[in-house]
Amino acid sequence: MFNTLIPFNFQGLYGYFNLHGEIAIEPQYEFASIFSNGSAVVKKNSKFGYIDNKGKLKINYLFEEAVPFDNGVAIVYCNGGYGLIDHNGNFLIFPQYEDVYGYNSSGFVIVKDNSKTYKILDMKNKFSELFSCQCEDMSGIDECEWIRVFKNSRYYFINPTGKITLMPAYHEVGWFHEHMASVKIDDNFGFINRHGALVIKPLFDEVGACSESVFSAMKNDKWGFVDCHTVKWVIFPKYEVVTPFNQGLASVCLNGRWGCVNKYGDEIIPCIFDEHPAFYYNGLVVNVYSHDLNCNRWYLRGQWNKPLFQKLGVGGEGGVAHSIAEVNR
Predict the structure, then answer these.
(1) Do 180 and 160 meet the contact criterion of CB atoms below 8 Å apart?
(2) Cys staple from 14: which of 32, 69, 196, 292, with CB 3.0 to 4.6 Å?
């Protein structure tokens, strides 16, 4: 665990802390991401490449855009198009598309070309084409391998071979999460199941996706959380902004200050911080920043009574820690 590295910014250059608060990789990059699948995206001379956790360059600075690896592949942009690479930097999909997304452990990927044609490719069969169509949007591959399509002013769902799995009766439909998708009826939101049946009536001004058996919901301009099964409030609406639950925690904003709550509504991290808590490595490490305290704190999940370490004079931006002086060298 203590090989985990966290990006920070020192005088405009990014490096990495370890979980002791010591510098593991010296600040030298124009950008640095978290580590994923054993590597991180870094930027030098306006180009992106990949390093290992020792700071050794794994894939050269070749790309105009790049994202961290996920399930052994990464999306990159170069030469005017998006493509997909493996851990060695070999192109699995040459950079030729307007967009590449939707890939996950199911083994399918969605690509979009300049003619607005969307294609579903089979990653397990040399990226062979399974289905293509022209539409306004095609996005998401959920846990049941359903893909949402928007065409002719309505949403419907297909499987990777293009077979329609559901044609909802509603014109505004969200993605399926935990087998439920939000729908808008008149000016309120509810949820349907995978048969298209309305399982939660449109009782809310706005809703978020289901996550860990609860969903966020808005009433009278305030957000709270509702149990997906009982449709009762588990946390009454009082927050200005919330995020979905992730491993038992959700970020919440109260009176302009951020913290984290559990499903009982307990403030595990009090709402005293200026910026959205940053969760690293599946929530193992949480980073929060306070202008008033003039410090950035890192907590290890489950050890909220004492920060793992903190840095004075440290700021945060976009979920990446920024340090200026009190770093250990």
Answers:
(1) no
(2) 32
